Amino acid sequence: MEILSRVTDPKTQLKVSAKVKTFVLDTNVLLHDPQSIFKFEDNNLAIPVEVLEELDAIKTEQSTERGRNARRVHRILQELLPDSRTMLEGVKLPNGGTLSVIINRYLVDQKFDSPAMQRFRAVLPDFSKKDNRIIACALFVQEQYDPPTILVTKDVNVQLKARAVGLESEDYLNDKVPEAVEETSYREIPVTIYELQRFCSEGEFDLGPDVGKDLFLNEYILLRSNEGKTMPARFYGNGSVRRLKIPDFVKAPGGIPIRPRNLEQQFFMDALLDESLSMVTCFGKAGTGKTLISIACALHQTHDDHSHYDGLSISRPVIALGKDIGFLPGTLEEKMKPWLQPYFDALEVMLPSKPQKEPQFAAKKVSKKHKKKQYEDAALQAAPAPAVHSNHHHGNGNGGQPIKPYEKLIKSGLVEIEALAFIRGRSIARRFFILDEAQQLTPHEVKTIITRISEGSKIVLIGDPAQIDNPYVDSRSNGLVYCYNRMKGQSLAAHITLMKGERSKLAELAADLL
C-alpha cells in the first residue's frame, strides 16, 4: 500500500507520496521537454509556483519554440491539476509518481523559518531573482520530506548555487546519450589477404555473423589484412560489406572539381551521394571539410539530370531555433547572410569568380606620377560601367556590380536560404537540406526540423559537439548527438566522424592545441 506523508506544517496542504526521490523541476527543464513531467518514473515531482510565473511570461512568444513549449506545459498542468486542491495536495501521475505545485512558506510567512533558510538568505539574499526563489523552494521541500530532494535544472549556474547551499542538483538526463561520443572515426576489421582480394574484385564480401553482429547498419569500416593492405567498405547488414560508390570528383555546374583528401571524406562523400539514405549526421572539428564536401555533393546531384533533388536548402541556427530575425534589416537572404557566410565561402571555393587582370606597366623607367596615372587608367578600364537609370531594366540588378557565380544559383532558386525560425508547418520536398551547427539545437528542435523533410528529400546535419554556445545543451544532450544516437542502425541513416583537418596545417594545429 502506498504511504502518503504530509509536511510538518499543518497550514500547508501539500501532500505527496514518500517514495525514492523528490525532484524539483526548474523552468528550463519544462521548456526543454514539456513531456518531462511523465519521465521521472514513480518518483515525486514538485514544481515551484515561481516556475508557473516564468512560464506565464514566456507563453506570449508566438513565433518561438519556447513560447509553444510554455503553452504546452500549461495545457498539461491544467489537465493534471484542474483545481486548487489538487495543486496543493498533489495528484498521482500515470507512471506511478506524484505531482504537486509548491509554495515556499518560508518566503510568504515570516513565522516559519529554519536555520537552513537563514544560511540561504545570508549567501543569496536577493529574492527578486527567480533562480534564487526556485532554489529556496527546493530547499524548503528538502527540509519537509524524508526522500532525497534533487533540483533538476539545465542551468549550470543554478546547479552550482544550489550545491553551494547544501542542495543536491543535476541536469535533466532523459535525452542525454548514455556516455560521451567516442573520438574514433571508424573501426578496422581484420581480414585475410585472399578475402581482401576477393572483395576488391567482387565489390562485396561476407564478414560472417560473429563479426557483423557488432556493427551498425550503414556503418563505415576499413578492412585491413595482416600484410597492411586496406580497403574502405560500408556495412549493409547480415554480415555483408560493400565497396564505396564515389566518383573521382564532384563539382557544381561550371565549378572546379572537388576530390576527397582522406578516407573519412570518402566515407562522407559516399553517404552524401547515396539517395537511399535520407539522413546523414557528421561530427567534425573546424577545417575537416564538413561544409565544403556537403555543398559540393549537393550541387553535384542537383545538376544531375537523373537526380530527384530540385535544389539545395542551407541553414544554421541563429543562436538557437526560434530566435526571431525579423527585426534585422533587409530581405531574408540579407538577414541570414552573416550566419551563412561559411557557406558562401565554400561556394566561392567551388565557383571562383574570374580573377581581374592586373594593370601592366611598360618596362621603361617612368616617373612615380606617370606610373600612378597609368594605374588609375587601367583600374578605370577594368571597372564595370556605371548603371544607367532609365525606365527600362538594364544591368544585372546588382547595382552595376558583377554577380558572383554562386549568387546566380541563389537567384535562380537552385540554392535556397532557410530560416529555422519559420520552418514549423513547412513540408520540404525534393530538396537536399544541409543544417550546419546542429550541435547548438536541443533534441526537440532537431525533431521539429527533421519531421519537415518530405519523401524524396535528404537532410544532412553537421557540427562539432565539442563547440557549443547554447547554455542549455552539452556534448551529450545536444540535438546532433541525440539524433545520431537514436538513429544509428536505421536503414535510412548513416553517420561519419571527420577527424583530420584539411583546411591548412595551421588550422588543424590550432583546432588541436588551442
Automatic annotation (TrEMBL):
This protein's record includes keyword Hydrolase: no
Keyword terms: ATP-binding, Nucleotide-binding
Matches recorded under InterPro entries: P-loop_NTPase, PhoH, PhoH2-like, PIN-like_dom_sf, PIN_dom
Stretch forming the signal peptide: none
Similarity remark: Belongs to the PhoH family. In the N-terminal section; belongs to the PINc/VapC protein family.
Gene Ontology MF term list: ATP binding
Biological source species: Nibricoccus aquaticus
Any one of the GO CC terms: cytosol
Domain PIN per the UniProt entry, residue ranges: 21-160
Protein name as catalogued: Phosphate starvation-inducible protein PhoH
Record's keyword annotation contains Cytoplasm: no
